[in-house]
Each structure stands twice: as C-alpha cells, then as structure tokens.
C-alpha cells in the first residue's frame, strides 16, 4: 500500500515535471519570437536538426569599414554531409522582401549585386557561416538573415548592421514639404546620404535633435523629433519625443526628409579666397583645388565626425549656404552646436565663401583659383 502510494506520487512528480518543461519551452519560443526583430538567438535543440545561432543585438561599423556579421550553425555530423549544407545570406528590405547577398554550398561561393567583391564567408572552423563585408556603404545598413539548409531542414537567424554617423533634416530649394517618398530618397542620395531609419532618428533625438518639420523615413513613415515643445510645433503642452504621422502615401503626399550619412572617405575644408564668390565662382574655385563643392551630408559628417568648426558661411553643392559650429559662441549663430543654415540665396548675385570636398588620395595643388580667377598660392 505504501509502495503503491509512493509510485503514484512519483508518477505525479514526473507528470508535473513534464508539464513544467513544456511550459518552459513554450515560454522560450514565445520570447524568441517576440524579440526576433531585435535579438535573435536560436538555441540548439537535441533533435539533430540544423540549428542556427546569430549574435544578439547588432554589430556596428562606419562607411568604408569592414564588419563581420556573426552566424554559427550546429548539425548532426553523423546524419548530414558538410557538402550538403547550403548557406545563404539575404538582406531584409521589407517585412516580406529580401535581397540576395551571398550563397555557399560545398566549394561553390557567390556574392550578388553590390556585394560582389566585398562579401565573403569567414569560415573560421566548422559551423562558421559568418559573413565578412568590406568597404561598407550607407546602403549596407539594415537587417540580414543567415539561413542554413540541408536536404530536410533549415533554420535562420537575424543580424542587424548599424552605422556610426549623423542625421540631417533636408528640404530642397523649392521649399519645405515638397518631396514625396521617392523624391526624398533621391534628395538624400544627392546629398551623400540615405533616408534615415526610425532607430537612427530616435537616437538623434536622444542626443538633442529638435526639428519642427515632419520628414520621410526609410520605412515610409513620416515623423519629427521634438526636444523643446512649443506652440508652433504641435503645442507647448505636448510631451517631448519623436512624433509620428504614421505611414503616408508615397506618391501623393509631400514632406521634408530625414537623411543619414556616415564617415567620410575624404576631407571637407573651407577654401580661403581674397573675396567672396558667386556660386559659379565657388564651383570653379573648388575644382581648381582638385575638389568639388561639398554636399550637405558631407558637411554634416565633417561637423559631427571630423569636428569641423568654422564661423564662416559658405556655398554647398545644392546651392544652400551653411557653416558648421562645434564650439558655440554668440557671434556664430547661437549657443547650440550644429550646422547653421542660411537658406538658398541667389546663386548669381549673392557672394559667400565655399566648402569643398576632396576625396582621400587626391593631392592638393600648390596653386589654386583665387581672386579675379587668377592662380595664386592655395590657402586651405
């Protein structure tokens, strides 16, 4: 009788343990799915199936850098031949859209599109499917999926590639709220940038970005960051934060753009001349110093990353006039650091200095275009 009671207790204990394990597994699965967009970490099971494990969180680099997107896989070596394993990296461009980046099977290797010549597998031992990307571009920013497949099973994990850089609000000469989504993409590209993501805009807001005009983001939403609530920016009594207009019609609706740019592969400088210049003269002056008139994104990157600080207004490539301030002083436009914007003056009759951009590896001439179009010793 006692023995039977003990047996019954033991059976109940086993059943309780089984229920606990099932609930625990269910909780882990739900947690993994809930965090899939940010943290992907697929745990190895005991079934012998192929299991992928990627790094939690994100990896960070800058434009022009080299980065490793980590991914490892585990499989039953007694059941699968290594040459049967297919490794595939794709970039997530939309929730249901992917772009091929790299594929490997056996000894075959192939990179696609803009990744040709830049992407390769790390292959640092068995089960290493990590992807190396060299000369990282702005367009490389985003989420990547590492998928491992054999004849019967497959598994995948996500890695986010982030870039160090700077957000800059942008509108063209035509004025504010003149860009649809596609025009905003083009405007950012013309100014050495890409449309910013929400994460990038939110981080810029945490660092103090305050901008009263709504702008397109990479995902097709329209938002704007407010650090100092005021009546003209959605009322003074509304809380600080990144305010969201939601997803807008990409063709028919018009807003500004929030652009993102990263490290420069070159140098931005203010070209000293004996007199102020029209836009056409400024263009020739930069060309004479083996450079071009700097783009807006290049000036922002020089301000943020190279700490360019110059209290002199100068032409930029889009016809605007701006200047970068790292150390604020009253005579230089206020008490906050930033890139000051004087708008879009008349290109022919208004005279300013000029900011030039010279790519890395280009040697500056000893003589440059100066006053009255003559050649004088160059002063940079």
What does this entry show, briefly?
The protein is an alpha+beta fold and 380 residues long.
What would you say this structure looks like, in words?
A hairpin with a 4-residue loop joins strand 14 (215-216) and strand 15 (221-226). The strands form 6 sheets. This protein has a 6-stranded mixed β-sheet, with no helix packed on it. Strands 12, 13, 14, 15, 16 and 17 form a 6-stranded mixed β-sheet that branches. Strands 18, 19, 20, 21, 22 and 23 form a 6-stranded mixed β-sheet that branches. Residues 1-48 and 370-375 have low confidence and may be disordered. It is 19% helix and 32% strand. The chain has helices at residues 2-34, 181-190, 198-206, 279-288, 296-304, and strands spanning 51-54, 58-61, 67-69, 71-74, 86-94, 97-105, 108-111, 119-121, 131-133, 142-149, 154-163, 165-170, 194-195, 215-216, 221-226, 241-247, 256-262, 266-271, 292-293, 314-315, 321-325, 338-341, 353-359, 367-369, 375-377. It has 3 domains: 50-163, Immunoglobulin-like, CATH 2.60.40; 165-261, Roll (Mannose-Binding Protein A, Chain A); 264-359, Mannose-Binding Protein A, subunit A (Mannose-Binding Protein A, Chain A, Roll), CATH 3.10.100.10. The protein has 5 helices and 25 strands. By secondary structure, it is of the alpha+beta class.
């Amino acid at each position: 009788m006692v023995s039977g009671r003990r047996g019954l207790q033991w059976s109940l204990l086993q059943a309780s343990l089984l229920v606990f394990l099932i609930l625990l597994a269910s909780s882990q699965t739900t947690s993994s799915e809930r965090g899939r967009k940010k943290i992907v970490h697929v745990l190895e099971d005991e079934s012998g199936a192929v299991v992928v494990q990627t790094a939690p969180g994100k990896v960070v680099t800058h434009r022009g850098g080299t980065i490793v997107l980590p991914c490892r896989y585990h499989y039953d070596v007694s059941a699968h031949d290594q040459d049967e394993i297919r490794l595939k990296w794709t970039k997530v461009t939309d929730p249901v859209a992917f772009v091929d980046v790299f594929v490997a099977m056996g000894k075959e290797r192939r990179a696609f599109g803009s990744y040709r010549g830049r992407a390769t597998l790390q292959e640092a031992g068995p089960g290493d499917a990590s992807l190396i990307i060299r000369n990282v571009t702005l367009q490389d920013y985003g989420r990547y999926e590492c998928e491992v497949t054999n004849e019967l099973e497959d598994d995948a994990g996500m890695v986010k590639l982030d870039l160090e850089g700077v957000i800059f609000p942008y509108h063209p000469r035509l004025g504010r709220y003149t860009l649809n989504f596609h025009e905003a993409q083009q405007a950012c590209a013309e100014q050495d940038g890409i449309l910013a993501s929400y994460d990038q805009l939110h981080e810029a807001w945490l660092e103090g970005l305050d901008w009263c005009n709504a702008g397109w983001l990479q995902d097709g939403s329209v938002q704007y960051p407010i650090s100092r609530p005021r009546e003209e920016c959605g009322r003074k009594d509304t809380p600080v934060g990144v305010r969201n207009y939601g997803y807008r019609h990409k063709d028919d609706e018009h807003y500004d753009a929030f652009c993102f740019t990263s490290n420069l592969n070159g140098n931005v400088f203010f070209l000293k001349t004996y007199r102020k210049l029209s836009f056409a003269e400024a263009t020739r002056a930069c060309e004479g110093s083996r450079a071009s008139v700097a783009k807006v994104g290049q000036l922002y990157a020089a301000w943020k990353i190279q700490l360019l600080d110059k209290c002199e207004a100068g032409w930029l490539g889009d016809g605007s006039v701006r200047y970068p301030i790292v150390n604020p002083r009253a005579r230089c436009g206020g008490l906050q650091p930033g890139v000051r914007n004087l708008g879009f003056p008349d290109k022919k009759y208004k005279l300013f200095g000029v900011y030039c951009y010279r790519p890395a590896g280009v040697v500056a001439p000893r003589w440059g275009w100066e006053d009255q179009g003559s050649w004088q010793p160059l002063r940079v």
